[in-house]
Amino acid sequence: QVQLVESGGGLVQAGDSLRLSCAASGRAFSSYDMGWFRQAPGKEREFVVHISGSGRSLNYAGFVKGRFTASRDNDKNTGYLEMNSLKPEDTAVYYCAASRALTGWSLSQTSGYDYWGQGTQVTVSS
To answer: What one-character-per-residue DSSP string does the chain give?
Structure first.
């Protein structure tokens, strides 16, 4: 029902910024909640942020500490994750995901999302 493609990852230095994009295909994009997750080698996939279909409600993981900002442009069928002050520990494959309206526990769990992008690699060197 919806396909997602991430882009914008790359190799950066600690302290740099990146803006990831998640382009969605399909109708009624605004009816889908979006989530961003990341997975580092040897670790479980980790919740980063959830954003509601309207973009008016956001839920961030605690480790973000104000460095990351999620947004979306429903007219462009695109979600964004702006990452600032990047650290080596932010190195991971970053995924965007989508699902119909999520609440509570589900919005921070991989099992809560029905559609996933292929991931984009973010590498932060020291």
So the answer is: --EEEEE--EEEETT--EEEEEEEESS-GGGEEEEEEEE-TTS--EEEEEE-TTS--EEE-GGGTT-EEEEEEGGGTEEEEEE-S--GGG-EEEEEEEEE---GGGGGSGGG-SEE---EEEEEE-
AA identity, residue 117: G
Which amino acid type is present at position 14?
A: A
Tokens of 10: 């790359």
Residue 21 structure tokens: 């994009």
- pLDDT band, very low/low/confident/very high, at 34 (cuts 50, 70, 90): very high
What's the pLDDT tens digit per position in 50-96?
999 999 999 999 988 799 999 999 999 999 999 999 999 999 999 99
Query: Per-residue confidence at 103, pLDDT binned at 50, 70, 90?
Result: confident
Whole-number Å distance between alpha carbons of 13 and 102: 35
